[in-house]
Design a protein that fits this description.
Elements lengths: L10 E5 L9 E6 L5 H9 L17 E7 L3 E7 L10 H12 L4 E6 L5 H13 L3 E5 L16 E3 L7 H11 L20 E5 L13 H13 L2 E5 L1 H8 L6 E4 L4 H7 L6 E3 H9 L2 H8 L10 E5 L12 H14 L4 E5 L14 E4 L7 H13 L4 E3 H8 L3 H9 L1
Parallel strand pairs: 1-13, 2-4, 2-5, 5-6, 6-7, 8-9, 8-10, 10-11, 12-13, 12-14, 14-15
Antiparallel strand pairs: 3-4
Helix pairs in contact: 10-12, 12-13
Length: about 400
């Protein structure tokens, strides 16, 4: 859907896609009728997925959130059989394989025979560098007919489900980076440090709550034992007259003002830049951001959101403020395209001169890295909201200095 041009001549088009979640994703894959749905039901202790002897019961991926002690909330994904030959089988198999691009761990289920489809799934995981293990289901009636050398195999039966063994294997193989947040501030803030969080409360702020990056930053500071001081931008100047914090973290939208108020000897960064380290490839972002200075008239810029939200406000950061900052900084007439999730890049993505990823607070690091890899393969430089805003406001070096030392 193409929106009318702005008054300055810039064009913005909007592509609507699905939204993800920032919890670790664990996908369950295999042929039809090997017990994938029975496994997810056993793990969750609920009738999450429909179980039937009729082949092809699962069509679209079924998602269920559960809590795993020691990890926290995760998303389990039950997928269609990869050997579905029904009229819609090709589409269902495609959706199952697409799910591989968004999981942090794969559970490959088979029953008795280990055949070409199972081998193909294993090879797909290896190619994507996705950790995986096998569940040999129906062990009580279909003994394993082949030794899968070098692979992790959990023997399972839904009549006497060995749930503990599956959960133990998940805890062993799920990458810590999928659920831990050690790179947020642990490597730069110590117990007792005072950290000021600048949180504007304006028309773009959600009603009655904080946004997820602000909440996660506060929790991280509490875990560290640091002092988290939350202020509105209008209160910052007065506070700094009597306090010298270790670090100031601001919402990117007020970067210019906060930079002018905070003394140069106090490190300054933004929530979005924090999340560019947590969720993305920080070095890739640093390099890509400098591409902004080389943009020319007519160049296309891809704005990449990762969540769903109301876009009827005139001050939306990704769809209004960021394009305006870029046009003002470059002095060029740029074209902007916005995608709202991780499902699909534009088919002509290689024609874009720059892509800018949001902080990614609502998706996983695996999902964003997959997107970044696809852009890298097409030769498209990538920046991040916070880094791009800092660059356009002339404070890129200051906002990233603490993380480049």
């Amino acid at each position: 859907m193409v929106k009318p041009e702005r008054k300055d001549g810039s064009k913005i088009c909007y592509t609507k896609t699905m939204v993800k979640t920032n919890r670790p994703h664990i996908g369950i894959f295999g042929k039809m009728n090997v017990g994938k749905s029975s496994l997810i039901n056993a793990l969750t202790g609920q009738h999450t997925a429909v179980v039937s002897e009729q082949p092809g019961t699962t069509t679209d991926p079924v998602k269920k959130t559960m809590e795993i002690l020691g990890i926290g909330p995760v998303v389990l994904i039950d997928t269609a059989g990869v050997d579905d030959t029904s009229d819609l089988g090709t589409l269902r198999i495609q959706r199952a394989h697409e799910a591989l691009d968004h999981v942090d761990l794969a559970i490959l289920v088979f029953a008795g025979e280990f055949g070409p489809y199972d081998q193909s799934l294993m090879e797909s995981c290896v190619a994507r560098k996705i950790p995986f293990f096998f569940v040999h289901n129906k062990e009580d009636i279909e003994p394993m007919s082949v030794d899968i050398r070098g692979a992790d195999v959990v023997r399972f039966s839904c009549k006497e489900p060995n749930v503990a063994a599956v959960l133990d294997k998940i805890k062993q193989l799920l990458p810590k980076s999928a659920y831990a947040q050690d790179v947020l501030l642990d490597d730069h803030v110590r117990p007792g440090d005072e950290v000021v969080l600048v949180i504007p409360v304006d028309s773009s702020a959600p009603e009655g709550r904080l946004i997820l990056p602000q909440v996660q930053t506060i929790r991280n500071l509490l875990d560290i034992g640091a002092w988290a001081v939350c202020l509105k931008d209008t209160e910052l100047r007065e506070y700094l007259q009597t306090h010298t914090p270790k670090l100031v973290i601001t919402d990117s939208q007020v970067f210019e003002y906060v930079n002018a108020v905070v003394p140069t000897e106090i490190p300054l960064t933004s929530f979005s830049i924090l999340f560019s380290r947590l969720k993305g490839d920080f070095d890739m972002y640093l390099k890509g951001t400098r591409t902004i200075s080389r943009l020319q008239d007519g160049d296309k810029v891809l704005i990449m959101e990762s969540c769903s939200h109301s876009v009827n406000k005139c001050d939306d950061i990704g769809r209004t403020k960021l394009p305006n900052w870029l046009q003002k900084f470059t002095g060029k007439n740029l074209q902007f395209n916005v995608i709202a999730s991780l499902d699909a890049l534009p088919p002509d993505v290689e024609t874009y001169k720059l892509a800018i990823q949001c902080g990614g607070c609502m998706v996983t690091r695996t999902q964003i890295l997959h997107r970044l890899e696809m852009l890298a393969q097409k030769g498209v430089p990538v920046s991040n909201y916070g880094l791009a805003i800092a660059y356009c406001n002339g404070i890129f070096d200051r906002a990233t200095e603490i993380f480049r030392k």
